[in-house]
Specification:
The chain is an alpha/beta fold. Helix content is 44%, strand content 20%. The chain has two domains: 7-70, Orthogonal Bundle (Chemotaxis Receptor Methyltransferase Cher, domain 1); 81-269, Rossmann fold (3-Layer(aba) Sandwich).
Length: 271
Amino acid sequence: MVDLLTDAQFDMFRKTIYDESGITFSESNRTILDSRLKERLREKSLSNVEDYYKLILSDKEEMKMFLDSVTTNLTRFFRNQPHFDALSHYVIPKIVELKKNAGQKTVKIWSAGCSTGEEPYTIAMVLKTVLPPTMDFEIMASDISLKSLMVGKQGFYPESRILGIPPDYLQRFFTKTDGGYQVKDELKSKIKFDYHNLKHDSGQRNLDVIFCRNVLIYFDEAAQLTVINRFWDSMAPKSFLFIGHSESLFGMDTKFEFLKTDWACLYQKNT
């Protein structure tokens, strides 16, 4: 199959993707960019790649649609179970103790790069189960993909997508409907889905936990460090950061401390 993009055009789009999102598009992903661009050209009834490039530079909404189309949205409920075991058995007890000593009652969590919502809903199910009844929580779930965010906001998942949810959680937090399962309002009300580009400051502060798993792998080291430093600024003292099991902050100039629990490895803002 003939490539849609010349080498110069590929470099042009690759630089724009990096400048706008911090995501690095390697040569090995060229076919993905090719196919996504063909979809956008069809959608906008354009035949010329250069015309589409001019369009994304002049139209912020189309730029969002373009970035949406080239990001990967692989996720599932309870993905990497040990992280949620560490959340239940180590992180939440520590945070509850800190909150009680400070006279506070709300745990604040950010699911950064939440895709179609499985991760924040999983976090919410865990918190609903393990938090003392005197305490509450709120979750901000963000992504660069508008289509993924719409799925998360709706909270409807076909049967093929609910694998991994324990039967008691499924019964408690979901309603069975034709063709799938609908998240109940008691869970949906705890999560705010919002568009956010990790290249920019979220404006959030005093967060207790951040989940940003399998997202940093799409950034080069400079962009990773920028994101990690922004996380630090948005987090409360004695807070916790979960990244993907194949990701690491090793070798990076960061203030986070590595933390090995009985269930999983994570990072802590230990100040």
